[in-house]
Amino acid sequence: MSKTKEVYLSDDVRKQNRFRIISQFRVHGKKSRTEISKLADLSAGTVTNVSTMLLNEGIIQVCDQDASHASSSSHGRPRVQLELNPGYKYVVAGSLTFNSISLSLFDYLGEKISTVQEKVTLEKMDGDEIAEFILAMLKGFDVEVAPSIFVLGVQGLTKNNGKEILWSPILSESGMKFAERLSQISNAEVTVANDSAMIARSLSKDKTYADGTFGAVLMSYGIGLGLYIDGQPFQGAKSSASELGHISFKGGDGALCRCKKHGCVEAYASDYAIWRRAKGLDPHALPERPVTSEDIAQIIEEAREGEGPARQAIREAGRAIGFGLAIMFGLFDAFPVVFVGRGAQALDLMDDEIRQALNDHFRFHKQLDINFTKESDALVHVENGSSIVGLEWLDQQAAFGKT
Amino acid sequence: MSKTKEVYLSDDVRKQNRFRIISQFRVHGKKSRTEISKLADLSAGTVTNVSTMLLNEGIIQVCDQDASHASSSSHGRPRVQLELNPGYKYVVAGSLTFNSISLSLFDYLGEKISTVQEKVTLEKMDGDEIAEFILAMLKGFDVEVAPSIFVLGVQGLTKNNGKEILWSPILSESGMKFAERLSQISNAEVTVANDSAMIARSLSKDKTYADGTFGAVLMSYGIGLGLYIDGQPFQGAKSSASELGHISFKGGDGALCRCKKHGCVEAYASDYAIWRRAKGLDPHALPERPVTSEDIAQIIEEAREGEGPARQAIREAGRAIGFGLAIMFGLFDAFPVVFVGRGAQALDLMDDEIRQALNDHFRFHKQLDINFTKESDALVHVENGSSIVGLEWLDQQAAFGKT
DNA sequence: TGTAATTTTTTAAGGGTTAAATTAAATGAG
DNA sequence: CTCATTTAATTTAACCCTTAAAAAATTACA
Fold first, then answer.
1. CA of A15 to C1' of C22 (A)
2. Are A171 and A154 in contact (CB under 8 A)?
3. What is the model's pLDDT at position B242?
4. Is B252–A9 a contact, with Cβ atoms under 8 angstroms apart?
5. How far apart are CA A380 and CA A199, in angstroms?
6. Domain A206-377 in CATH: superfamily?
């Protein structure tokens, strides 16, 4: 279409096959040329040729042949196991929340090498400051490497191309531009992605959901939904995730949301909303101080002790979540849901309200299968998902080259 | 992945280039080899080779060179204009509504050749009967040809693969299986698609929307939404279109919808809903007799005369539509909307309510740009869109062959 | 009739793939 | 210890497709 000359040529075929072969290593780990030949459905000769190139380029390496005899049980020339070269390139996968940045370094094999975390309020920083802060954090890693790509999970709407944040509650207007700046000063690719979408991506590698269709609801400072449909991440039109948190639960006169609208699901189900209600604060204002993990843990504890404002707040959160899911289930079919994050700890207390809200919308039950992931440390999932995205990008670069 | 041997070989390159070339003819119509060479960015030699194959296979043909001198103004060997062979294969594009079937025959150039329409109540027929009825209707065409593909627009949820109807208000459970049967007895491909999605596809070829992002809201016996995002049809997870009509507008105790749920947008905005309310009938029951175009025309006329039940019914429809759009605008960004179908005739009467409902959800205005298409004959758009789908399929078959 | 201008076809070179043949490396029997 | 056997990896030869360049075809015009 554009000026770039698209070549449907042997060159493309080679690139495709490079990608096929790299992908097999990505999925299966250590494999011999012969095995790759079968897995990738390519001739042995092609695998030899491509492998030689990949070895020369440092993309793959020959494994230590320690237990090589064990694997090939029978006669004949033993297979030479090859694998992705862990040091080929590095990914920094991170999570940006309203009051902290966490970064982890992953090697090309997808192993986490090091982690750093800093408390910082992003809303007060502009794009340049955030970019420089992130770059400085790299010094905290155990090893000193230049990552090829940053993949950063943030709350809010991000463009599908991973290059733009359309809206985020944790960033100021000027802060949203940090990606481009970070890319310049780090000389690396920088991608931003919705945090819930990254959680879903992480969970999709889990055996439990591997075949599947499921949603990951992140209940923390905001409410997010990452969707997987038939094993594929579901991409909204523009945004990377479906904005469950900003579906309108109550009309325009409902509780105030961080997004400045009123009545959003988030204004009833996020941790600040739960805290606000449990403490009897004005629903038309945002809490003056940040709500901490401890605050939420305390509310949940109170709620478990019996009826009262804490329990009521969590009930209301359940109704909001249930309403939001009902809307989603109306647009899609019903899907199993994994709850992640601080608020998810109270799932048992919300379960009835969620189901009741669904029933209010669907006179006839839809099949529901709500799973609960105790993993409150959503951060690990965000980073895992982000690392997966980063590795996919590296694989494509390795196969198809720049541009 | 599967058993089928995927060949990343010269064979594929040739197929890709066949498709490139066919696509250029599809878009640009009559063109010489030289022109195609430039348009498709392929060498003259390749175009010659592929053209020779396509000519032999009857996919393209040499044009009458009547005005050939006119086109090539200067010296030299004149260009030989080629074009898609209209008689290569045929598409039957159709629309199935609750009380009629309409079919149109399109040639490979996309020209409509003939149309037939029959009154029939599909809900009372099983799959075999519907399939045989459709096949029999082909005899009504001016010419006798065996179509290679049927593309049929229906209300309801269809699978993205076009092979299954998940739910449709106009068909009985057994009737939903007609596609497979029709495919057998006609020996042709059969695809089912959501009617609103087909309307959007048809409109997407319109200059006004060609660049774009827009939604087509079909207001007739049901309420459908076909979405185009950045020039691409937006596919929901499973269904071909976003089910605007079955978003829950009122809780579980609202008006009865054909889908057996209560409170759906459709239960307030479809023609049977408007009629029901205008006539003061029980909102918890479906009207006993089908609502006709004349009924709706009459209600609209009454509504225009001033306040009263008719006007109120249309107002309520506007609120329901506005609510549904608000939900959609929350998940996507706001998009311009084209209203099509019988109900769309009353758009001016609903305009205020639609905008009011949107404002109730969005305290801060989102940019709205609602267009109104007077084209009440949604049927033509459904068929146009369907023919486009059919031609795309034929092109792919022609380029890549069976399987 | 001959020459120039353009389009289309043919040809030769270059790349990638595969199947088959060859080489490499290890096992184990005699 | 030698050598046949077995399996892995590499090399070879044939094939297909593309492109650039050369050749052929076809028409206009002098």
1. 28
2. yes
3. 63
4. no
5. 8
6. ATPase, nucleotide binding domain (3.30.420.40)
**B325 contact partners, CB below 8 Å, separation of at least 6:** B215, B217, B244, B337, B354, B357, B358
Selection from B391, B385, B362 nearest residue B224 by Cα: B385
Which of 3.40.1440.60, 3.40.50.80, 1.10.600.10, 3.30.420.40 would CATH assign to domain B91-199+381-400?
3.30.420.40
> Cα A295 from chain centroid?
25
> Are the CB atoms for B141 and B155 separated by under 8 Å?
no
Q: Is the pLDDT of residue A284 over 50?
A: yes
Looking at this protein, which amino acid is placed at residue B151? V
Are A79 and A93 a contacting pair, CB within 8 Å? Answer: no
Q: Which of B222, B224, B221, B220 is nearest to B200 (CA)?
A: B224
May I ask the CATH class of domain A10-84? mainly alpha
* Same CATH fold assignment for domains A10-84 and A206-377: no
* Percent of chain B's residues with pLDDT above 70: 88
Model-wide pTM > 0.70: yes
Q: How far is A102 from chain B (nearest CA, A)?
A: 28
CB A310 within 8 A of CB A289: no
Chain B residues with CB-CB distance to A239 below 8 A:
332
Domain ranges of chain A: 10-84, 91-199+381-400, 206-377
Q: Domain B206-376 carries which CATH code?
A: 3.30.420.40
- The residues pairing with B32 across neighbouring beta strands, listed in sequence order, are B81
| Structure tokens belonging to residue A117 | 């975390």
The Cβ-side half-sphere exposure at A380, using a 13 Å CA radius, reads 8
